[in-house]
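Obj.: predict assembly geometry.
Materials: sequence records (below).
Method: joint structure prediction, all chains together.
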Amino acid sequence: MTTKTRRDKKDEQILERMRDLAQAVIDIFGEKGNPAVQIPLRSLSNSVYDEESRFIRMGDKLQERVFFHQGQAKRFMQTFLVASACKELLDVRKTTSIRDLFYMTKHTLARGENTFDDQSESDPVLEDLEVTIGALREELHLFASNKGTMVGNLTLVDSGDTIDCRSMGTGGYGIPSIVEEHVVQFKKCEADFVLIMEKDAVWRRLNEDKFWKKHNCIMVQSGGQTSRGVRRLLRRLHEEKELPVYVLVDNDPWGLYIYSVLKYGSINLAFESERMAIPKARFLGLSSFDREKFDLPSVVTIALNKNDEKRAREIMKYPWFNEKRWQKELQKMMDSKVKLELEALSSRGISFISEKYLPEKIKNDDYLE
Amino acid sequence: MPKKTTMDDLFLFSVEPVPAPAAKPVPAPVRKDPTPEPETDAIPTVPDADAPDRHETGSFSITGTDNLFGALWEDQPAAAEDATPRQRQRVKAEEFATQQREISISEFFAKNKQLLGFDSAARALMTTVKEAVDNSLDACEDAGLLPTIIVEIQPLEEGRMCVTVQDNGPGIVREQIPKIFAQLLYGSKFHRLRQSRGQQGIGISAAGMYGQLTTGKPMRITSRIGERHPAHYFELMMDLKKNRARIVKDMIVDWDVPHGTRVEIELEAQYKGGRQSLDEYLAQTAVANPHAEIFYTNPRGDKLHFPRVAQELPRQPEEIRPHPHGVELGMLIKMLRESPHRRVSASLQHEFSRVTPRIADEICELAGVPTTRNPQKLTGDEIQALYKAIPQVKILAPPATAVVPIGEELLRRGLARQIRGAEFYVSRSRSPRVYRGNPFLVEVALAYGGELQGLVDHGDPGELSVAGIALDQEKTLAAALLDLPGFNRKKVAECLEKTGISPRKRVKGLEFSEIAQLRSAYDSYARQEADTTSAQIIRLANRVPLLYQLKACAISRAIMEMNWRRYGVTQPRGGFPQGPLVIMVHFASVWVPFTSESKEAVAHFDEILEEIRLALQECARELSVWLSRKVKLKASRERKSLFQRYIPDLSRSLAALTGGKPKDIDALIQEALEEFADQIELPEMVDLEASLPTGDSDSDSDSDPDSEPEGDDSDDDEN
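Observations (raw structure tokens):
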């Protein structure tokens, strides 16, 4: 059990980092000072697109979080509240969900104020802690709720259980939040590529049509924006099994951004890009040009709203979308002023996507990279 | 005021307006002065034979009305502009006078009660008390006695009341009593230029007359001038046709008062509460006269006592001659024509105050009038030239001794005694200024916040009380809350809705926490009420409270025209400021320009408005400093509590991470908070006492009105 020892060591390391951080704060209080925690900034301004490796890295900008500041006091307290909860998990050697963490740390302060009102408040604080002490979520004994399902020509072992992804019924294999090698190992893999889509409905259609069998692939649905587990799993399949990754998303700025995150990493979690980004991920569709190519009726289009247009303009400005073909794709969307959902393909027949659209696109290498 | 008289009535009095101030410095006709008056305007009306003893005749003269209606003419400057109206006027006046001289002034007033403030039963009660109290205060001060005044209103049947006002003044000699009390226009105040409460000597006799007209009862006077003198008791009726006293009783009585006067008048009267009540009037009188002690029994039988705040009498205001700045043309004409001096320069020097030989020469030179000209022979053009030259010459302000302020400290203390529990008081006395040759000064005091904001002591947390008032334990909550002052069904419903407590719940079944909720609901309600209620305004003219005609008064106008928002006080457009605020303005002058004879509103003179505005601004500036400090303090307290809210969790977490003790770390952070708070963002506590002005050191200074720095010209803009 060499891994176990390694993990214990890692736990020790992380506990020590948290202890040091806390002690430094206590010392500054002792000097009647205003303690500050230096937190690497997770924002667009601190995201650097690394042209060489082709993914987003976190820059070296820091934000300072002090206690004696009326706008920061609560966050400061929350940061250490989360840290102490993580310490507790490490101490008892248990792993829990970030949802659990939220409930572990939520309680009422004076006058009806809560430490956290909802999870959307505690999640960023956890991310702050991750980047501050340089520990990954799983190293803090935390995981996100499972999100994303998978079927295909693959056999894997999850915590010692062998899973055959060829016989997962209609539901598929639920992708866990932690898919590191100590949890998930790949066994037999015959697939030629991986197809990842944002829509569960589309995934089900393809699963029912046994698309993965016919085309010898692995199909993953992410239910919207991809979770860390899905991204890490895709990255491992891409890297270890050398499978190309095709991405199928709605034809709107949000769909494009899902692709962008898979490919380059997210701005928010730029520190994890290195082990998650798939620079060679292929954008299969829906492309703005698909409407003409596949003769989709205009009735299935949806007009872009103001938010969509704003998001599209923002994305056009990201350095990693700076290439001509991407600008063309985005410009086409802006010009046509419409968006398309994956389901729009069904206007040409219920299995149009599995029998015509996808095979043609893949056969013709009609994708953007 | 003239609107209320018919044209016929007016014609009885004056045919053509004579400039009002013209009469002020001139001795009035109706006085018992052995020296016959020199040429007054009024000669035509009264036969010479009557002159020395005019009051006995009961007829009136134009000069008298002229004074009486002083304010009327102020509104008609056109008459004053005319430099040579005298010939024509005299003829006309003579003509009318010969026709009408048998008409009695008493009769006129009997028909026109509203002119003197007797237009309703409620008003009559107020005016009667007011006139009697004014007289008492003036008499005491003239005699150098600290006034102690007893006011008692006794309700009788059929809408009648008996007003009794007694003072510890010098008393009145027996012979004078009938004239003073039962003869209109008998008095010594209106022909002198000096700050005093009454100005015409018409009030108390008018009150007696009103009483007589409404009840048929005589006025009862008791007066004693000293311990070695007997007390005289009179019952007086008034002969309205002849304006003469009819003595019903005249006797010597036993009176255990060493000196003083007691007036009893029975009249048709109505007692009302509220801001225009007699109670309010006497309370304000006490504020305006901190040296006076007042005992008051109202018609309900409540006994109120306003103790003395100051143990010293205010300085006696001096009589002065008019100041040249602001003198009207008509008045100038009159003064020059009547001057006994042979040279213009001498006239200027002696008829006016603050005119030195050098200044007189300067005026003449500027006007191109030889200093040696005989003033009686000046042409209209020459007088006009002098009139135009006067404002161009720098002349020292009128002697400050002519007007007496209440003083900043007494003003503030007086206000603080009457408006208790405010958080902030400020007062300012301005230096004397001049309007139309009359010195005047303005004082302002403000009270803000605290109990004015509805913050009250609710009593012990364990008591079943709200606002310190015990709730009836047997009642339902809704019924019990109705007993609170100012609460009606709507308010109770709102209050209960806020707390979520059932209105049908019995008071005795209330939990402590529910009582606390009710109290805080009451507080927020009261605060909201206070914040949207107009400021309370106390107007004083020569220490006399003005309760009526709020909107017509220069004081109100100055308050409304000021931009209070700039000082952090809410104010609807063009309205009075709102909030837990009391604004007190005292206008003191040798001659208060009332808008009407009932003396309820100060006329709108630019100089007066400006001074009131400046005084208000000085106080408002202090208020705004205090308000912003208060806001800051509140914010910093909140900030501190914000940190304190997070300290327990922070110290527990830090302790868990390091293995330390939460208690120790908590203490460490608390200490750091103190240190940190002091160092950086939390201002020192406001010392309320220190923020109050402590004296009136500069209120008596006699400074040049033209050179006083204002430094805030940008102030007050809009409107």
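Conclusions so far: Chain B touches chain A at residues 639, 642-643, 645-646, 649-650, 652-654, 656-660, 665, 668-669, 671-673, 675-676, 680 (CB under 8 Å).
To do: check interface contacts against the pulldown list.
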